[in-house]
Amino acid sequence: VNLMSETNFPRFGAEDFTPFIDRVMDSDADGVLISVWGGDLVNFVRQANNRGFFDKDFELLFTVGAATEVLSALGDEMPEGVHLSTRYWYDAYDNAVNTHFVKAYIDAYGVPPSYNAEGAYAAIYAYKKAIEAAGNTDGAAIAKALSGMSLDAPNGTITFRKGDNQAMVSPNWGVSGPMNPEYGIRTLMDLQIFDGEEVARSVEETGCKL
Q1: Angle 195-193-146 (CA atoms, 0-180°, nearest 5)?
Q2: Which one of 46, 75, 119, 153 has the fewest CB atoms closer than 10 angstroms to its CB?
């Protein structure tokens, strides 16, 4: 892999992505890694469509492109056949916790849960479990209880790594597929789940001194 000599970082909240889009389109890049997210990603994709960006022969990877809020906002404006990632894809996990969570969420809101919803759901139960283990709500005691703790969440078993209490979450990658007519979002095909403990930087590399 040959990295481009120049990396482009639009400011957070940027409204006009066309200078960055045009710069990449004029380059000889074979692939593009796109890390904008949320409303910025919605704006980027719409502007990229208008510029013919997706007609170019790029391999495209969106690091948080499979957020269901983004997919709902874009509908079929999100192109088919691009690589999308998320910390959680609602249809990726066959376990009782996920089955219950997805059904309850769809019953309540009519759409599948995003990684944000799953993360909030798991965080509440992690906090509850840590309080029960600590026997109180003292912050230091809870942090100590979290260290090394494991939790059964919708996206499988999560462990809070000793040393920095980082939750080891496994990223989901797939390729955008046909539209799901029930929910108005792209499906995620060729799904792969990468082990969070294998892809995360080590505690030593983070420099965390918890």
Answers
A1: 45
A2: 75
Long-range interactions of 12-16: CB distance < 8 A, separation 24+: 12/40, 13/40, 14/40, 14/43, 15/43, 16/47
**Which pair of tokens denotes residue 62?**
């969106």
Pairing of strands 150-153, 156-159: antiparallel
Q: Which amino acid is at 198?
A: E
pLDDT digits (tens, 9 = 90+) for 71-126: 999 999 999 999 999 999 999 999 999 999 999 999 999 999 999 999 999 999 99
Each residue's pLDDT tens digit, 143-187: 999 999 999 999 999 999 999 999 999 999 999 999 999 999 999
Mean pLDDT of the region 179-196: 97
| Both tokens assigned to 97 | 């916790």
Distance CA 54, CA 195 (A): 30
Structure tokens at 21: 């889009």
CA angle 158, 162, 167 (to 5 degrees): 30
Could you give the domains of the chain? 18-93+169-203 (3.40.50.2300), 96-166 (no CATH)
Q: Are 91 and 111 in contact (CB under 8 A)?
A: no
Query: Tell me, what DSSP letter sits at residue 104?
Result: H
Residues paired with residue 167 on neighbouring β-strands, in sequence order? 160
